[in-house]
Amino acid sequence: MEHAEFNKDLMEFLNQSPTPWHAVSTMKRRLDAAGFEQLDERDDWSLARNKGYYVIRNGSSIVAFRTGIGDVSLNGIRMVGAHTDSPCLKVKPNPELRRKGYFQLGVEVYGGVLLNPWFDRDLSLAGRVTLLDEAGEVRDTLVDFQKPVAFIPSLAIHLDREANSNRSVNAQTDLPPVLMQVPEADTTRFDDLLGQQVAAETGLKARKILGYELSFYDAQKAAFVGLREEFLASARMDNLLSCYIGLQSLLHTSGDEAALLVCNDHEEVGSMSAEGAQGPFLTAVLDRWCGAGKARAIAHSMMISADNAHGVHPNYSDRHDENHGPVLNQGPVIKVNHNQRYATNSRSAALYRHISDELGLPHQTFVVRSDMACGSTIGPLTAGNLGVTTLDIGVPQFGMHSIRELVGAEDGYTLFRVLSEFMQRKTIF
């Protein structure tokens, strides 16, 4: 896969994946096209060597793997992990708000959202809907309005003279998006509007909307940015960029060695769920794949947790340790925290550096300032659950947890090349 093709396909993937459910659906289509077989957790499994499989849980998390040609208990598994969710605004169950002739929806903040950039953006809406169809069956479907349908207008500076020095955002009162104007006697129900959209997209006619998990998202598409197009801007770079890199790496391996990609939901809210990294999903898949040889397989294995890193901001360079400020387009970032907020150790970092050096590719290191708190990833959670040697790494970016984020146009492809080599490497340690 060439560099230009990689970035073009990445932007298409980002545009097709406004929610975790859409991201997993997009990955499923690509795995199907590559000949991978879907497994159902409710069925017995009979796994063959030298084949590709995948398992989906809740529609929003996925484990895909190649079984390789050897004995997995002797050769181990080359694992890559990422997460499908991103901070956003989710629609509440009873969301209708009518104020001064405007129809709005109440929203709940999901994850550590950087709220200010959500104002004055063209917003669309997407997610999963559970409904009762005409035949009386309960079923799930995906919905994506795919066009600007809402807006969160800022309060004019004339009405808030301290807006540039002292404006805070109240998540309850300041964030409900405006969808349309309605008459005073309006009785529009959001469920009715949603049912119409489902019918338009899928042909399904809902007797009743039973539930939904819907997120607003930035309707602006991914794009190159910069006079020389050095950067890529998009929503959900954290962490769909890593999902895409992991998927492409798995698809481009030789298939001789056992390799696995896990993309969990709910990382942004702590990962404690049935399909999150603190839950049993990956362990359950490995139990069924490896059987009695699982402990030996894990001892021969390694996990690379890929989640974007904080690039040093030229306007706020003092927020970084002076020797550990990653620069965009200068390579993926090995993330180190000796308090185990990242799972990197000297062995896992050494293997990545060795592969990267062999390929002649750059890499960087991030350590948070000693007087600042450190974020975390699925890395320590997966390492703790499985007992597997783990590396935390990520592409450096600006605007993490904003509605629109920025990465270097070189770094994703660099990480793809290293992970592709890692996933087909005969010997890990």
TrEMBL record:
One of its GO terms (biological process) is proteolysis. One of its GO terms (molecular function) is aminopeptidase activity. Its cofactor is Zn(2+). Keywords: Aminopeptidase, Hydrolase, Metal-binding, Metalloprotease, Protease, Zinc. InterPro entries: Peptidase_M18, Peptidase_M18_dom2. It comes from the Bacteria. The keyword Protease applies. It is an enzyme of class 3 (hydrolase). CDD domains: M18_DAP. Its EC number is 3.4.11.-. GO terms for cellular component: cytoplasm. Pfam families: Peptidase_M18. Belongs to the peptidase M18 family. This is M18 family aminopeptidase. It comes from Marinobacter santoriniensis NKSG1. The lineage of its organism: Bacteria, Pseudomonadati, Pseudomonadota, Gammaproteobacteria, Pseudomonadales.
